[in-house]
Write a structure and sequence with these properties.
Helix 3 packs antiparallel against helix 6, helix 8 crosses helix 14 and helix 11 packs antiparallel against helix 13. This protein is about 80% helix and about 0% strand. It is mainly alpha-helical. The protein has two domains: about 180 residues, Growth Hormone, Chain: A (Up-down Bundle); about 200 residues, MFS general substrate transporter like domains (Growth Hormone, Chain: A, Up-down Bundle), CATH 1.20.1250. About 50% of the residues are buried. The longest helix has about 35 residues.
Length: about 400
C-alpha cells in the first residue's frame, strides 16, 4: 500500500469518530438550556453554566497534552470520550445547581481534551503537502455533525435524550481505536521553551488563530441577534443561521486545497481580505434583502472560520511531529482566548453602533488578521514560510 493510501486509510478511521463527538456536543447546548429552563433556573445561571463549560475547555486545552504525551493518542481519546459520556449521563442524576456547574465544567474539559487529541492527531497524519486538505475534510465533518446535533431536541430535554448523547460520546472512541495509525508517545522536543518559546517564535501565526476564535464565537453567537434586528421572522432567522453555520464546512475544502498549494499565510491573507470587503459592504450599504445579507454574511463570517486551522497548520509545518502536541495546545489556547473575549467586544460594538456593529467589528478583526498574515510572511524569524515549505 502506498504512503498516500495508508494516510487516507488512517485518516478515514479517525474521521469516522468525528461525527459522533460533534453530534453529541451540538446536541448538549440546547438540551442543557431546555432542561435548566424546565427546572426553573434563570438566564443568569444558564449563562454561568455555559461560561464554566468554556472555562473547562480552556483547562483541558492547557493540561490534556501532558496526559496525551504519556499514554498516546488512542488511550487519550478513549479516556476523553468516556469522561464526556459520563459527564453527560450524570446530568440526569442531579438537580442540584452546584453539581450542574461541576458537570458542565468536566464536559468542557473533555471538549478541550478532544481538540488537543484530534487536532494534533490529524496534524501528525498529514504532511506539509497534505495537511491543509486533511484538516479541511475533518473540519467539514466536524461542523456538519455539530450542526446536526441540535436535532436531538425532538426527543426533548429528557433522561432519554441525555442518555443517548452519553452513548454517542462513548461510541465515538470505537473508530479511533480501530485506527491503525502509529500510537506515538512522548518524543524528544526541539523547542525547549515550551509554550512561551512557541509564542515567541510564532506570534503572528498564533495571532491569526486568535482572530479565528474571536470571529467564530462572535459571528455564531450574535448573527441571530443581527438577523432579528433586521426584522426577519423566525423561519428566516433559522434559515439564515443554518446557512452561515454550514457555509464554513463548504468553504473549508477549497481553503485547505489552496493552503497546500500556496502556503498557509498567503491563503489566510486572501480569505481575511475577502472578509474585509464583505464587512465593508454590509456596514456601508446596509442591505436588507434576505439573500443579499445571507450571501455577504457567508463571506464576511465564513471566511474567517478557517483562520484557526491555517494558523495552527503554519506552526505544525515548521516544528514537525516532535512538537505537534505543544503546537496544538498553543493554537487552541489562542483560539479559546479569542472565543471568550470576542462576543463581549462584538456585543458592545452592536450596542454602540447598532446591528451593523457586528460587521464593523468583524471587519476590524479581519483587517488585523490580514496584517498578521503579512507580518508572518515577511517578518517571521523562526522557519519563515516560503514556497519550499508549502510543497515540502
Amino acid at each position: 500500500m502506498s504512503k498516500s493510501s495508508m494516510m487516507i486509510r488512517r485518516a478515514g478511521w479517525l474521521f469516522l469518530a468525528a461525527p459522533f463527538f460533534g453530534v453529541s456536543t451540538g446536541a448538549l447546548f440546547p438540551l442543557v438550556a431546555l432542561e435548566l429552563n424546565r427546572l426553573g433556573f434563570g438566564e443568569a445561571f444558564v449563562g454561568s453554566v455555559t461560561s464554566l463549560y468554556y472555562a473547562g475547555s480552556m483547562m483541558g486545552a492547557l493540561t490534556y497534552g501532558w496526559f496525551l504525551n504519556r499514554v498516546g493518542y488512542k488511550i487519550a481519546f478513549f479516556f476523553m470520550a468516556m469522561l464526556a459520556g459520563l459527564a453527560a449521563f450524570a446530568l440526569t442524576q442531579f438537580h442540584d445547581p452546584s453539581m450542574w456547574l461541576v458537570l458542565r465544567f468536566i464536559g468542557g474539559y473533555a471538549l478541550g481534551g478532544y481538540y488537543i487529541v484530534v487536532d494534533s492527531w490529524v496534524s501528525a497524519l498529514g504532511t506539509r503537502a497534505t495537511r491543509g486538505r486533511l484538516f479541511a475534510g475533518f473540519e467539514t465533518l466536524r461542523l456538519l455533525a455539530t450542526a446536526i446535533g441540535p436535532s436531538l431536541i425532538i426527543v426533548g430535554a429528557t433522561t432519554t435524550s441525555f442518555t443517548l448523547v452519553a452513548i454517542v460520546y462513548a461510541v465515538s472512541f470505537v473508530p479511533a481505536l480501530l485506527n491503525d495509525a502509529p500510537n506515538p508517545k512522548a518524543k524528544a522536543r526541539r523547542l525547549s521553551g515550551g509554550l512561551a518559546g512557541l509564542a515567541q517564535c510564532f506570534p503572528f501565526a498564533l495571532g491569526v488563530a486568535f482572530c479565528g476564535g474571536i470571529a467564530n464565537a462572535s459571528f455564531y453567537g450574535l448573527s441571530a441577534v443581527y438577523a432579528n434586528a433586521l426584522g426577519y421572522d423566525a423561519v428566516q432567522i433559522a434559515l439564515f443561521v443554518g446557512i452561515v453555520l454550514v457555509a464554513p464546512a463548504v468553504i473549508a475544502i477549497p481553503v485547505g486545497t489552496l493552503a497546500d498549494r500556496f502556503g498557509r499565510m498567503p491563503v489566510a491573507l486572501l480569505i481575511a481580505g475577502l472578509s474585509v470587503l464583505a464587512c465593508v459592504f454590509v456596514s456601508l450599504v446596509q442591505p436588507t434583502s434576505f439573500w443579499t445579507v445571507t450571501a455577504a454574511s457567508v463571506v464576511a463570517g465564513g471566511c474567517l472560520v478557517p483562520l484557526y486551522v491555517l494558523g495552527l497548520s503554519r506552526i505544525v509545518d515548521a516544528v514537525g511531529e516532535q512538537d505537534v502536541i505543544l503546537a496544538t495546545t498553543a493554537g487552541l489556547l489562542s483560539y479559546n482566548a479569542g472565543a471568550l473575549s470576542g462576543p463581549i467586544a462584538a456585543g458592545f460594538a452592536m450596542e454602540r453602533i447598532g446591528p451593523t456593529g457586528l460587521y464593523v467589528f468583524l471587519g476590524v478583526v479581519a483587517s488585523v488578521a490580514t496584517l498578521l498574515a503579512v507580518a508572518d510572511m515577511y517578518l517571521s524569524r523562526c522557519c519563515p514560510e516560503g514556497p519550499e515549505m508549502a510543497h515540502a
